[in-house]
Design brief:
CATH class of one domain: Alpha Beta
Radius of gyration: 30 Å
Number of helices: 21
Number of strands: 25
CATH topology of one domain: Heat Shock Protein 90
Strand content: 15-25%
Helix content: 25-40%
Shape: globular
CATH architecture of one domain: 2-Layer Sandwich
Structural class: alpha+beta
Oligomer: single chain
Length: 690
């Protein structure tokens, strides 16, 4: 499938390895090569080694990759590909294996038309050598010609020459084991769930490959605690199976449409299916690399999809002469699509390979989609009409939304500075220093307005629960006063006229109560931003405020605690033993002996007072805040809004596909996935308000 290497395994030798430059810069500036030295960079190292094995599979030489997370912090990756050549390289006069693993830009992907690979992925094309340079230890084993060849490395430097260490029954293959260097990385803890998401994606994109993952770590991060330790990914359906996976909790329209073709510019494979939702989820890949920012292949797909559906609708008389053409947005509403292209010389924009720049891929994808989608629609008129009906419904909603949006803009303009009346704006006009707090309820809004710094902090109170935009089109959304106020306050517009350069606040902070209703309101607001203002999340403008749950007072000293653990630590420091703090402040009053406790002043959840056992004379008071409105303005400023003291969580988007699945499950129209989610996670819920 695609560009297959025509050379036989016996001709993949040292002469195919081209050398460009040495390894020295990698340890000095690791971020240049793997993006960062945090957990993301750590995962990139694993992906780089696994991608080399997948390149073998794409070239038709391997069908199984095994990944092992060892208890010693190591990662081992084995494939049944041809095995890295071990003969002497003509330029370096060293074994090709040592050359590949110790010289930057050395590998079978750089040898021109006569190289071992016609297409390949790899993180930045820098290959295993960068991973070796950033590992405290690496061991490579190659299975070729009935022998095992081995070499070990320390921080990128070989310990000894490549040597045979025994015989093997394996016909061919490579095993790379490495331990990331703690001198380089901020953390050595890998997330199994993140790695699995990547490997599942790769298995969808490389039909017929099997990727096995085994986790042998005794200490695992919290998000991995309940995950099984063994996985095997294998998808015969390829990208069509991927689209079914994306739509598994959605009501699909017809079956998945799938086609592939080799064009002059490269190999194109596309799968797509519509569903009864309002969001577009198009995922693009070039040589198995996830191009998160799209690129020329996505541009070609959008153009061809719009043209083909319009042509069919005109031909069948569904669109009349007087009707406007369907727009690109109309034909993408409710669409899930995966576009996978393979090309010989991919050009990526930016360091992180997130956007494909090859101009020839636009024409290649456009040609294939025009031809194959038109064929499908001719051969499946029932499915085709259903798809066009869905697009026409989107067009009608767009026109209604345009009228509603124009009304919003007109109304906003009449009010002066396009601002809603309940917004308490800040005096600064410099967006880079301004903050907008979206506050739950009028009482909390009142406290926030009094406690804020008027120079740079604006307050917008949200009354009740805003509309769930997951189940609403734009016209219905703009009819909701709370959503409308929020959109006007931000200043960026929405839909076709959205302009992120007009954002009025550098930080947008969601500030809700620490209870179930607060969490629900926060989720509704996050749904709005994820579906309609994802750019603000991607550029780091969206935050969640962290307000304290408790105020602890002993004599003249007061401290705030954001959770039970902080409360318990403070009380322990003040002389109340941890055994007296098993669940909540009500229990504390019961645990301490009677002569040490004054009668509680309020009922459960309010304020408890006690004497510190060791100090006898000083009284400890614990106040639990049920909502932001219970705080005085000065308390709210001190704990939640003062930039010098506050703690805020920045909302990031690590995995758009996983986020889409979560929002669909939690906020979508289908109840069954939500019920399953609740049943699965019910046992992990603490302090549930009933």
């Amino acid at each position: 499938m695609g560009f297959m290497a025509t050379e036989k395994a016996s001709t993949y030798d040292a002469a195919k390895i081209q050398v460009l430059e040495g390894l020295e810069p990698v340890r000095k500036r690791p971020g240049m090569y793997i993006g960062s030295t945090d957990q993301r960079g750590l995962h990139h190292c694993v992906y780089e080694i696994v991608d080399n094995s997948i390149d073998e599979a794409m070239a038709g030489h391997a069908n199984h990759v095994t990944v092992l997370l060892g208890d010693d912090g190591s990662v081992s990756v084995e494939d049944n590909g041809r095995g890295i050549p071990v003969d002497i390289h003509p330029k370096t006069k060293k074994s090709a294996l040592e050359t590949v693993l110790t010289v930057l830009h050395a590998g079978g992907k750089f040898g021109g038309d006569d190289s071992g690979y016609k297409v390949s992925g790899g993180l930045h094309g820098v290959g295993s050598s960068v991973v070796n340079a950033l590992s405290s230890y690496m061991r490579a084993e190659v299975f070729r010609d009935g022998k095992i060849y081995m070499q070990e490395y320390e921080r990128g430097k070989p310990k000894a020459d490549v040597k045979p260490i025994g015989k093997t029954e394996k016909e061919h293959g490579t095993l790379i084991k490495f331990i990331p260097d703690k001198q380089i990385f901020d953390t050595l803890v890998m997330s199994l769930s993140t790695l699995l998401a990547h490997f599942r994606q790769q298995a969808y994109l490389t039909r017929g490959i099997t990727i096995s993952v085994m986790d042998e770590r005794q200490k695992r991060p919290e998000e991995d605690q309940n995950l099984p330790r063994l996985y095997r990914f294998h998808f015969e359906g390829g990208v069509s199976a991927y689209v079914r996976h994306l739509n598994q909790d959605k009501q699909g329209i017809g079956d998945v449409i799938w086609f592939e073709k080799e064009e002059e510019g490269g190999f194109v494979e596309v799968a797509l299916q519509y569903s009864q939702t309002f969001q577009d989820q198009t995922i693009t890949f070039a040589n198995n690399i996830h191009t998160t920012e799209g690129g020329t292949h996505l541009t070609g797909f959008k153009a061809a999809l719009t043209r083909t559906i319009n042509a069919y609708a005109r031909k069948e008389g569904i669109l009349k002469e007087k009707d406007e053409n369907l727009t690109a947005d109309d034909v993408r509403e409710g669409l899930a699509a995966v576009i996978s292209v393979r090309l010989k010389d991919p050009q990526f924009e930016g360091q992180t390979k997130s956007k494909l720049g090859n101009a020839e891929m636009k024409a290649a994808v456009e040609t294939v989609v025009n031809e194959k989608l038109a064929e499908f629609m001719e051969e499946h008129p029932g499915d085709a009409r259903e798809v066009v009906s869905k697009c026409l419904l989107a067009a009608r909603a767009r026109m209604a939304a345009r009228a509603a949006r124009d009304a919003v803009i007109r109304k906003g303009a009449l009010e002066g500075m396009t601002l809603p009346g309940k917004l308490a704006d800040c005096s600064s006009k410099d967006p880079s220093e301004c903050e907008l707090f979206i506050v739950e309820g009028d009482s909390a809004g009142g406290s926030a307005k009094q406690g804020r710094n008027r120079e740079f902090q604006a307050i917008l109170p949200i009354k009740g629960k805003i509309l769930n935009v997951e189940q609403s089109r734009l016209d219905k959304m703009l009819a909701n006063n709370e959503v409308k106020s929020l959109i006007i306050a931000m200043g960026v517009g929405i839909g076709e006229v959205k302009d992120m350069t007009k954002l009025r606040y550098d930080r947008i902070v969601i500030m809700t109560d620490a209870d179930v209703d607060g969490a629900h309101i926060r989720t509704l607001i996050l749904t709005l931003y994820f579906r309609y203002f994802r750019e603000l999340i991607e550029t780091g403008h969206l935050y969640i405020a962290q307000s304290p749950l408790f105020k602890l007072t002993m004599g003249k000293e007061s401290r705030y605690a954001f959770n039970e653990k902080e409360r318990d630590e403070t009380l322990k420091e003040w002389g109340v033993e941890a055994k007296e703090l098993e669940t909540s402040e009500e229990d504390i009053a019961d645990e301490v002996t009677e002569d040490e406790v004054e009668e509680p002043k309020a009922k459960k959840g309010a304020k408890i007072e006690m004497l510190v056992p060791e100090k006898k004379k000083k009284k400890v008071s614990i106040q639990r805040y049920k909502g932001l409105g219970e705080m005085n303005p000065d308390q709210l400023w001190d704990t939640t809004m003062d930039p010098t003291k506050r703690v805020m969580l920045r909302v990031t988007l690590e995995d758009a596909e996983a986020a889409d699945a979560i929002f669909t499950t939690l906020m979508g129209a289908d109840v069954a996935p939500r019920k399953k989610f609740i049943q699965t996670h019910a046992k992990g819920v603490k302090n549930l308000d009933i």
